[in-house]
Amino acid sequence: xxxxxxxxxxxxxxxxxxxxxxxxxxxxxxxxxxxxxxxxxxxxxxxxxxxxxxxxxxxxxxxxxxxxxxxxxxxxxxxxxxxxxxxxxxxxxxxxxxxxxxxxxxxxxxxxxxxxxxxxxxxxxxxxxxxxxxxxxxxxxxxxxxxxxxxxxxxx
Length: 156
Known about the structure:
The chain is mainly alpha-helical. It has helices at 2-12, 18-24, 31-36, 38-44, 86-99, 114-125, 137-149. The longest helix is centred in the middle third of the chain and has 14 residues, at 86-99. The radius of gyration is 25 Å and the shape is elongated.
């Protein structure tokens, strides 16, 4: 009796309790769909917790941990997290503004890993010689790949 009253109260007040989540998994959607689209499904189910998903009152912008985004009709915006993401774009803009001067704007580029940054720097500068001992094994693989691509004239 007490469990019946607690689940009915959570679903009647639009809370995020077991009753509401249970209604989303009524057989028309799988658990994976509910996990990915839980916020939209709660709103679709008639929940009044739209404020819970709003960022309008945030003092600072939230971190975006999403890796996949809905593609805009005009093709602008973020599509896939490895290409661009709101948090990374904002950080690049802020770092560029900090590093720039009034007469010369700066552009910052962030990478997902140290190896990605190393590869980008080596690919951009294509040094003739590189002195390295030890270090990350992936860096040596990048150097060997760049040597092969340059016919042995770079990154020796």
